[in-house]
Write a structure and sequence with these properties.
The chain is α+β, with helices and mostly antiparallel strands. The protein has 2 domains: 197 residues, paralog of FGE (formylglycine-generating enzyme); 67 residues, no CATH class. It contains 8 helices and 11 strands. It has a 5-stranded antiparallel β-sheet with strand order 1-2-5-11-6. A 4-stranded mixed β-sheet has the order 9-8-7-10, with no helix packed on it. A two-stranded antiparallel ribbon has the order 3-4. α5 crosses α7.
């Protein structure tokens, strides 16, 4: 596995690849993880481990920590991250001239979600339990408008939310990670970071369409609310010999059927289509 050394940090190469991010499950509890879409990244380099206290000292040309130098650097906030990236990028040009592909311009930053997941798929990144790892993306309520070239999602927030970042949060006991977000205007325990050396993407940049097919989604929702809620609500009293109630009590049955149909939509609806690179070209 080719390795690039920058300021004593060993970055492992990740081959150009694509991956699907998000879920195609139809229930509305999964709405924040939709739409499932393809992310395609060029070749880049990533730290297999999050950065340690010793590595931070090396990047910033400071003294080695007196205690636990090999422990992860925790409590990284926005100002600290900015200083780390500034020092790393100032040393990158010499490396780019001698080692990296001259077809691209390169930068050092935290990985985007797409880069993190592609790297984990290829080389199995190490992430400690119960930690929150900073990503380069800005948080969002769903994947509408997300970048499909692996570049970071830009911030559209104002006020306090403009200082938040998306993050990979690891489960305390299970080998699982989930997407979350963290504020970058203050230092918080268990917040860590890793770095990538990655090409700077240029225009045109592909992204997930901002708008869903609202009319089709409404038709699907009405159909399944009828099939799973309204029809059984009327069929049950009729099959039990209570046809009169099905006629006289239709408002109650209709309301109950709508409620059942709506609740069923929380957990199940047909899978939504995935968005590929070809769909948006």
């Amino acid at each position: 596995m080719p390795i690039v050394n920058l300021l004593g940090l060993e970055f492992e190469m990740v081959e150009a690849d694509s991956i699907f991010v998000g879920t195609d499950k139809g229930g509305w509890v999964y709405s924040g993880q939709r739409p499932r879409h393809e992310v395609e990244c060029p070749k880049f380099y990533i730290l297999k481990e999050p950065i340690s206290r010793r590595q931070i000292a090396t990047i910033l040309s400071g003294p080695e920590p007196d205690e636990r130098p090999d422990d992860l650097m925790e409590g990284i906030d926005g100002s600290a991250l900015k200083e780390i990236l500034s020092h790393a990028n100032s040393s990158l040009q010499k490396l780019a001239d001698s080692t990296l592909d001259k077809e691209y311009e390169w930068e050092v930053r935290c990985p985007s979600e797409g880069e993190w997941r592609i790297a984990h798929q290829q080389i199995i990144l190490n992430y400690p339990a119960k930690k929150v790892e900073i990503l380069a993306d800005s948080p969002a309520s769903n994947y509408r408008g997300a970048m499909m070239d692996g570049s970071p999602r830009k911030s559209l927030g104002i006020g306090p939310t403009a200082n938040h970042r998306a993050a990979i949060e690891s489960h305390p006991t299970k080998n699982l990670v989930a997407l979350s977000s963290i504020p970058m205007d203050r230092s918080l325990n268990d917040v860590i970071a890793r770095l990538v050396i990655t090409p700077i993407r240029t225009e045109p940049r592909l992204m997930v369409p901002d708008n869903a097919d609202f009319a089709n989604n409404l038709r699907v929702e009405l159909f399944w609310m009828t099939i799973l809620g309204i029809v059984p609500s009327f069929a049950i009293p009729i099959l039990r010999g209570m046809s009169d109630y099905a006629v006289n009590g239709w408002p109650n049955l209709l309301f109950g059927g709508l409620c059942i149909g709506f609740v069923s939509g929380a957990f199940w609806r047909p899978r939504r289509p995935s968005i590929t690179i070809q769909d948006v070209k």
